[in-house]
Specification:
Layout (H helix, E strand, L loop, with lengths): L2 H15 L4 H17 L1 H17 L4 H7 L3 H16 L7 E6 L5 E8 L2 E6 L4 H12 L3 E5 L5 H17 L9 E3 L6 H7 L7 E5 L2 H10 L12 E5 L5 H13 L8 E7 L3 H12 L4 E4 L3 H11 L2 H4 L4 E3 L13 E7 L2 H11 L4 E5 L3 H10 L4 E4 L19 E2 L7 E2 L6 E8 L6
Parallel strand pairs: 3-4, 3-6, 4-5, 7-8, 7-12, 8-11, 9-10, 9-11, 12-13
Antiparallel strand pairs: 1-2, 2-16, 14-15
Helix pairs in contact: 2-5, 2-7, 3-7, 5-6, 10-11, 11-12
């Protein structure tokens, strides 16, 4: 990839797009929706090639599921784009304004960041999410997906370009570029493109994120691997807790908002742990601490599950806690108190999403105030940490940092502000 030429084209696209009205951008995005629907069959065929190749290489079933597109996921992509189209355009929004004593009128307004790059793994839907959020917020975007999704991303980007071209003057095809070399050198080029790329976002596993954070010479909006916890408090509704645990682990174990560890208050272990074992039914491998192991073993033996699935229970080692499995594996640990649970979470998590199941309002509020994470839930699954579920339509990722953006990132995450000052001859 010729990074200088690519970034020059993207910068020109960003400069043009920054001047477009909301109606122009919405028209262009609507044309992209039409192009995606028109090319759906070829996109799904391209994705099937990626899925077949990934399966042949031994990719885990959970990660293959993240990679795969089907009619339902394709429909969700279209719905996400339509939601973004309907959202208010943030560009030009006045976030603050005042007049100084000497008569200067100061306004703070939202503007695009400029040229944005996203480096991501597997999920083809990220190609569309990142593009439409960048376009709606007036930014050009450089897409660098993984080689495992290359055919899917090529087909999706071709449809994007087709739609932007069909939009005429309202479309800016030069505002999007997909890296297609499949060479890791392009990542290095992106991360060192000082003055050419305004910000880069990594979206994927811990290895990818660490590579970007450690090697970037340009600004990074850090998204985090999802080492998420569920804490079952002393007076939790255990039926609710078991149901939420099943959803948060099993609905999509390869997602960053799936739980990887469940903490159980010692007062609940005899009631909750057998219920958890029944709910998961041997479909999730439990890596249990010294206290929880015999209780789970007794239940799994009595129900016959352990005989059928002997690998569904293992003794946990230290490394199982604070690890992102991205699979049907769940670490289990017993704690003595809310304070111990909070301390454990804060020392093992990635600041992504954490949850408590409790009927104690004071405990719920203490958990939300003291746990250091972008999203902290009470009596709900961590699987809701998602731009679509939050009403953003799409998301760039889940930011786990504390500056600029945190949590699911929608349109506003790709904007910054500048001050516009009007005077009538004032001097200092």
């Amino acid at each position: 990839m010729n990074i200088d030429a690519v970034c020059a084209e993207l910068r020109a696209g960003a400069n043009t797009l920054a001047l477009h009205t909301a109606s122009q951008k919405n028209h262009a995005l609507s044309c992209v929706v039409q192009a995606l629907e028109k090319n759906k069959e070829s996109i799904l065929i391209a994705n099937a090639l990626d899925v077949a190749a990934a399966s042949e290489k031994g990719m885990s079933s959970a990660l293959v599921e993240r990679l795969a597109l089907d009619e339902k996921k394709f429909k969700s992509i279209i719905e996400s784009m339509n939601t973004v189209i309907q959202q208010r355009d943030p560009i030009g929004e006045e976030t603050a304004g005042w007049r100084t004593e000497n008569g200067l009128q100061i306004r703070q307004v939202r503007v695009p960041l400029g040229v944005v790059s996203i480096i991501y793994e597997s999920r083809p839907n990220v190609t569309i999410d990142a593009f439409c959020l960048a376009y709606k917020s007036g930014n050009a975007i450089l897409l660098r997906g993984s080689s495992s999704a290359l055919e899917s991303n090529k087909a999706l980007t071709a449809a994007i370009k087709e739609g932007l071209t069909e939009a005429g003057h309202d479309g800016v095809p030069s505002a999007v570029y997909l890296c297609m070399d499949g060479d890791h050198s392009d990542v290095e080029q992106i991360l060192t493109a000082v003055g050419k790329i305004d910000v880069v976002l990594p979206r994927g596993g811990a290895k990818l994120i660490n590579t970007v954070v450690q090697n970037a010479r340009i600004p990074v909006i850090q998204t985090g691997a999802g080492i998420c916890h569920l804490y079952v408090d002393a007076d939790a509704d255990i039926q609710m807790a078991a149901s939420i645990a099943k959803n948060a682990k099993m609905q999509r174990p390869g997602a960053c908002n799936a739980i990887e560890t469940i903490l159980v208050n010692r007062k609940q272990i005899k009631q909750f742990l057998p219920l958890l074992a029944k709910e998961l039914n041997g479909e999730v491998q439990l890596r249990a601490c010294e206290t929880s192991y015999p209780i789970l073993e007794t239940e799994l033996k009595a129900s016959g599950i352990l005989a059928k699935k002997p690998d569904c229970l293992k003794k946990a080692c230290k490394e199982d806690f604070g690890f992102e499995f991205l699979d049907f594996i769940l670490a289990v640990k017993v704690v003595d108190s809310l304070a111990e649970a909070i301390d454990f979470i804060n020392s093992h998590n990635t600041k992504h999403s954490e949850a408590i199941i409790t009927n104690d309002r004071a405990h719920a509020r203490a958990f939300q105030m003291r746990v250091d994470a972008a999203c902290v839930y009470v009596n709900a699954s961590t699987r809701f940490t998602d731009g679509g579920e939050f009403g953003f339509g799409a998301e760039l990722g889940i930011s786990t940092q504390k500056l600029h953006a945190r949590g699911p990132m929608g349109i506003n995450a790709l904007t910054t502000t500048k001050f516009l000052i009007d005077g009538d001859g004032q001097i200092r």
